[in-house]
Amino acid sequence: MNDFPLRRLVAWAALLAIATPHFSGAAPITRDLGDGLAYHRITTLPADLPKEAGNRNQSLILDLRFVRGDAAAGTALDAWLKFHPSSRTPVFLLINAETEAAVLTPLVRRLPTKGLLVVGAASPGLTPDLALKTSPTAERIAYDALATGTPLEALLYDSPEKIRDDEASLMKGRQSPVVPLDDPADDLSPLSPDTAKAAAQKTAPPLIDVALQRAVHLHRALRALKKI
């Protein structure tokens, strides 16, 4: 089996580890995802908790992946979550195995909150409502990419250009006969470094933040069903 995509992910992880050892204490990240949904990444609890959930008529993705904290931080999070999620403006809580168990412990002890959906890889402190099986390396790369300038949209969707190219190739294949090469030797000529790099990038999987993507999909589905 071709393990090129896996090697590429490991290489990205190594580069990010050198360039950005960690983001503990970094500023929180907030993005408007449109259609009544916002994204807010917490790096320090309780300081990064939104003072308001953006617009109180807006749903929110609250990202707690890789967050460290103690029991006091968990209590602050629990208090915030008691007032902000609702059936019309849900909060999608992203967690993973690296989310500190102490931060999530209060959520385990109380009854489910209306409008709160936990999404992500299972944490030692909490089992998600929607448990995802993700590669820890790929998740870390996608998580760090947003903090280093990658547009959030690029982490949610496959490339539209690639889809258009694939469709164009398919239509061309249906409409045009197969034409032999004028010079068969052309097909055996070595690729230039730039061409080889471009080919490698095309074969690499898109850098998708799976947990974030799933939360967005859940919100869009609820909107389509007029549940929110």
Spatially, the strands of the biggest sheet line up as 1-2-3-4-5-6
Principal-axis shape: globular
pLDDT < 50 stretches: 9-24, 159-171, 173-188
List SSEs in N-to-C order.
Answer: HEEEHEHEEHHHH
Cα-based radius of gyration, to the nearest Å:
22 Å
Structural class: alpha/beta
Terminal CA distance reads 44 Å
* Count of individual domains: 1
Question: How helical, in percent, are the residues?
Answer: 40-55%
Average residue-wise pLDDT: 77
Number of strands: 6
Query: At the third CATH level, what is the topology name?
Result: 2-enoyl-CoA Hydratase, Chain A, domain 1
CATH-level-2 architecture: Alpha-Beta Complex
Q: Largest beta sheet, briefly?
A: 6 strands, mixed
Count of discrete alpha- or pi-helical segments spanning 4 or more residues: 7
Q: Which class in CATH terms?
A: Alpha Beta
Strand content: 5-15%
Describe the protein:
This protein has helices spanning 4-19, 71-83, 101-109, 136-147, 160-175, 193-203, 210-224, and strands spanning 29-34, 37-41, 59-63, 91-95, 116-120, 130-131. With 228 residues, it is an alpha/beta fold. The chain has a single domain (4-159, 208-224), classed as 2-enoyl-CoA Hydratase, Chain A, domain 1. Strands 1-2-3-4-5-6 form a 6-stranded mixed beta sheet, covered by helices on one side. It is globular. The model is unreliable at 9-24, 159-171 and 173-188 (pLDDT under 50).
Task: Describe the structure concisely for a colleague.
This protein is α/β, with parallel strands linked by helices.
Keywords:
2-enoyl-CoA Hydratase, Chain A, domain 1, 6-stranded mixed β-sheet, 40% helix, globular
